[in-house]
Every structure is written in structure tokens, then in C-alpha cells.
Write a structure and sequence with these properties.
single chain, 173 residues, alpha+beta, 5-stranded mixed beta sheet, 6 helices, 7 strands
Amino acid sequence: RRVLFRSMVVENPVLAQDMITRFASILRYNLQRDLNHTVPLASEVEVVSDYLALESIRFEDRLRVELTIDADAAHAAIPPMLLQTLVENGLKHGIAHLPAGGDLRIRARVEQGVLLLEVENTGQLTEPKPGGTHMGLANARERLRILYGSRAALELTNGDGRVVARVRIPNPL
């Protein structure tokens, strides 16, 4: 990836400047996130959009993204880096392994006082690879447990060539 960005500085300086700005935004967000137990979903969507813009350089036309965030869900409080973790997981374990790439859909809405957050990607659940840490989802589940107890959940489902990560967070507003 480093070589890709380096060559971009010469080949396309305007795009390189945009990517550097997005990368800096992600770093700033990561440095500030430890100050808060929760952040508005809109903040997460913003940093994830920067991340996906960077990844779109790597995936080119192999990555298609669709965001559907209801207005009330945008204000919902979630643990920092929760959405980022789910998106990275979908890219790393799903779309990156597919020669034709795939779709990544991010949806959020509030129903009956519960935030429903979904990250859906092309691919399918497989057996864990030897040596894999599986830390991303385990950490996300633990943060949800600490903040909300058994009232929150993170589930993965698999079907029709798609994997969906679903998060339920109570009283998010």
C-alpha cells in the first residue's frame, strides 16, 4: 500500500493530497476516541467514509459501497471504532478474497428505542484460519457488554453469498 500512495504523489497529486488528508483524519479520530466511551454514529460514519475512500484506491472498481443511515440513527451513541471494526472485518474476510470484489452495505436505524446497525458484505463465513486472532469482533462484543450488559448484541449471519454483522444497542439517543 505504501508504494501505491508514493507513486500517487507523482501520478495524481490532487488525489494524493485528498488521501493524505483522509488518512490524517483517521489518525486524529483514533487519538481522540479514547477520551469518550461513546461517540455519535455520524462521527463513526465520517471516519469510516475516509477509510473506505482509502480502500477504494486499493480495490478500485472491486469495491461498491452503499450507506443508508436514518437521521435519528446518526445521533445514536455507539462505542468508538465499532463501525470501523465491522467494516474492516467485511473487507478483510469477505471482499478482499473475491476476484470480482463485492458490495459493502452499511445500514442504521432506530426502532422502538434500539439502534439497529448492520454491515453487510459479499462473501461467506468460513472456519477460522490457524493463527488468526479473531480479536476485532471479540473486542467489539466485549465493549458492548461492558457498556450495555446483555441488552446489546453483535451477531453474524451467513446466507446467499452475503455476511451480515448486526448490532443492537438499547437506548442509543
